[in-house]
Structure formats: C-alpha cells, structure tokens
Amino acid sequence: MTKKITLAIVGLAGLALSGIAGAADIHTQSIASTCMSCHGPGGKSQGAIPSLAGLDKEYFVKSMKDFKAGTRAASIMKRHANGYTDAEVEAMAAYFAGLK
Amino acid sequence: MTLNRRDFLKVSGAGAAAALTGCATTASSARPHVVVVGAGFGGATCAKYLRQWGPNIDVTLIEPNDKFVSCPISNWVLGGLRTMDDITHGYDNLPRHGIKMVKDSVVAIDPAKRFVKTRSGASIAYDRLVLAPGIEILTGTVKGFNEAETTGKVVHAWKAGPQTALLRKQLEAMPDGGTFVMSVPAAPYRCPPGPYERACMVANYFKQAKPKSKIILLDGNPDVVSKKPLFTDAWNPLYPGMVDYRPNNAPLAVDGSKMTVTTEFDDVRGDVLNVVPRQRAGELCAMAGARNDSAGNWCAVNFTTFESTTVPNVHIIGDSVLSSLPKSGHMATNMAKICAAAIVELLAGRQPDPIPVVANTCYSATSSSTSGYVANVYRFEAGKGYVSAPEGGATPKGDALNFTYNESWAKNIWAEVLS
Q1: What is the ipTM for the molecules in this complex?
Q2: Domain limits at B123?
Q3: Closest partner CB to B357 (pick from A31, A39, A78)
Q4: Of B333, B355, B376, which is closest to A79 when you measure between CB atoms?
Q5: Which fold is adopted by the domain A2-97?
Q6: What is the pTM of this model?
Q7: Contacts (Cβ under 8 Å, ≥6 apart) of A76
Q8: How many domains does one find in chain B?
Q9: Which is it for the CA torsion B293, B298, B304, B306, positive or negative?
Q10: pLDDT digit string (tens) for B242-299?
C-alpha cells in the first residue's frame, strides 16, 4: 500500500512538473514501450498475444506476480515477469491501464 | 531527391542550422535535429519514438530501400509457409509521425562537423546521429564466395530480400533426393537461432515435397549456438535422418561450378548451397570511426545512451553493437527505444535513465505448426553492462501454442516498427 501511494505521488509530481520528467517516469515509459514489441503498438495486439492497453491495473499486477511465482500457467511470460521488480510491475500496470 | 545544403536549411529549421555553423545548442528556441540512418527494426523504431517522446525534435530517417523486408519470418518463406509479399512492408506510415524520410544512402560521415553526406550529394547536418545499419557480411572470408554469389549460384540470404527469393527458387528446383548444404558462421552473427530455424523450415518443406532429400549443416561453432534442445528435438523426431549436423565445420571455400563447400575436413557436395559468411558491424559504423573494438569489427557503446564510446553524438543500435545482447530484430527494436529515450533527455539537457532494462523475445519455428522461444530481460548494471535476469531462457520443445504466438509476434512487431 505504501508503495502504491508513493508511486501515485511520483506520478502526480511528474504531471505537475510537466516536461521535466523524473527518472521513474522515463524508466516506466521505456520498459512499457519494450512490451509493445510483442503486445503491439500502444499495447494493442493482433492475433494470439493479448492486448495490454486498458487492462485493469490490479489484474496486470496479479498476473505478473502469478507468472513470477509460477502459480499461473505461462508460456513465455514467466521468463519476462522474473526480470522486473515489484515497483516496475506496479508502474507498468498503471501505464497500460491508462492507455485506451 | 537531392537536397543541397541551402535547401536542407530551409526545411530542417534552426537546430540543423546551428549544427552546420558549428555552434549547435539545445537552446529552447532551437529545434534539435536527429538523423537516423537505416530504416530496419532499430532505425525505424528509433525515429518513431524520437518523434513520439520528443515532439520538439526534427527527425530525418535515411534509407536507400523502398520497402522493409523482414529477416524474421524470412526462413518461413524458404520453407514455403509464407511468401515474399508477407514479409515485405511499406514505409508509408512513418511520415505520419512527423519523420522526414529521405530515400538515399549515406556515403560519408563527418562526426567533427556533424553532418552526413549522401550518394545523391546532399549534406545533412545533425545534432545527434543514430546509425542502425545492421551487419556487413564478410564475403571475402570464404574463398570463392564472391564469384559464386555474383553468378547467383550460391547466396547467403542473411539479409532478407532478393537472395531469400532466389534461395527459395533453388530449393523448389532441387530434385527429390538432393542435398541442401548450409553453413553457420562463427559467433557473433545476426540472429543466433536463425540458421537452425532455417534447417527446420527447409526440412519441413523437404518432408512434404521431397522426402528423400538431405540437409547438411556445417557449423563454424563447436555446438548449436542457440535453443539447442528445441532444435535437436525437432531434427530427430520430426525429420528423422534428414539433418546431418556437423559442428566445428567452418566453410573455408565454396565452388559454384563443382557445387562444393570446402571445410578443414573435406569437400561437401550439395545441390543447393547456402553459405553464410562471418559478419561485422555495418559499413556506416566504420565511416563514423565507430567500429572501435580491438579487432575493428563491432561498436562499443555507452549502454545507457547507446552513444559510441569513442565518437561523440553518434549512437549505434542493433546488430552492430558490441555487447552480450543478442543480435535480433526484436533486440534492435528495444535498443532503439532506450536510445530514443536517452537522446530526448540529452537534447533537453537532462539525465537519461541510469538503469535501463531491455527485453529480448525470439520465436523460432520448428515445423509448419510448432515454434519455441527464447526470452531474457537484461538490466543495466554499472561496471557490468547488461545482465540477464534469472530464469530467462529457451523452451526445450516446440508446440502449437507458441506457433500462434510466433505469428502474432511478427504482426505486432512489424506494426510497432512501421505503423
């Protein structure tokens, strides 16, 4: 919960400072953009790979945690989920939830 | 189209003007100009994200070819699963991002004065330059290859395009009971699993159309370089007795008349020869003086910005980079994003992300209905470079689900790069 509040504050600060992006924002933007190489531009996929645009934030976080823990059956996503910190997963979840 | 210096100033704005006069600044009134050379997976993506994340940046993308022909999935064309049309895409959508496309080749780079010269005679100034040339194939390292290639007898088909179509025709014309000989270059080379996927795709075609045929894979490496369990599992149960894998068999010479590939051990005769020579960073990198590793083959870069370690304001992305990152189209696409984000920050006088994270995903088909993958997430660590996160790796076996993901991946990454 503390982590979520911190992220929310960082996010708001980023908006307030419009144009002076903090390191966390650039980092999230970059890692989220690398997801799009498989999940499609703007997180909108064609074909079997799921879209990420507009995905519920909690669902995104739970999916990544479950992939990581191995409690959700996965093809490639366990390999990917293991590469990100919990904070990065939260930030990506917020980013994709905000894409329409 | 020819842009002379004066014309270019008219269209490119104050940022470029400042660079030409040798006093480039990042003053708020100036529009900085980034020139990207090469519109493959890396270059086109970089140009697009530079515009998306840096709307105040002018971006020029220089590319000699009319169309984008995808190396990923080109093995499927050889196997008859796809056509050249399926892997060929236009650049029509890129100008919509505000990218200025220039159909030309760069013939010289002046990193001190910060401009590139093109074949048509234009000088194009830059504040920052991104080079995404892919690989140069060292055809001279296999004796006789240049002659055999010129006559169309033997191709590498390691840059998707006319050679892909020609190799497919040669395979179609080969009689049943014939032999396809393919060589794998010593690492590092573009697309580590590519040669082995190619063997699977050709085997899949032979199994259906000419089942008495054989494949001899002459590997310049001591073992299968990538996804070994996936490919060896495919060669044995799927194509029994068809694939003759020979490690430590680098091609020394090729003869297009006798149709032989010579290794240290013997002359291997085939009906279709596909020799893939060793590779190094694209020629453009040498023009900039950025092919700067000890052997002069690859480009050392700063991993948070992809700027050359020795040539300021010149960034290199994709296969040409010296690193532990795989030389894949997917990796080039993702390096392009890290590089674009860093350039936006640098041009604004800010600090780029100090801990970039970049992922690679690579699917390979083992038959017309099965694929496997390798996936890794790499995190930059100061003093160490990009370090692979634990539990990255490859599937041991191809399956139908991953084939559908493989198909979807191709559509999505083409859209990501080009739309």
Answers
A1: 0.90
A2: 5-64+103-136+280-352
A3: A31
A4: B376
A5: Cytochrome Bc1 Complex; Chain D, domain 2 (1.10.760)
A6: 0.90
A7: B361, B373, B375, B402, B405
A8: 2
A9: positive
A10: 999 999 999 999 999 999 999 999 999 999 999 999 999 999 999 999 999 999 999 9
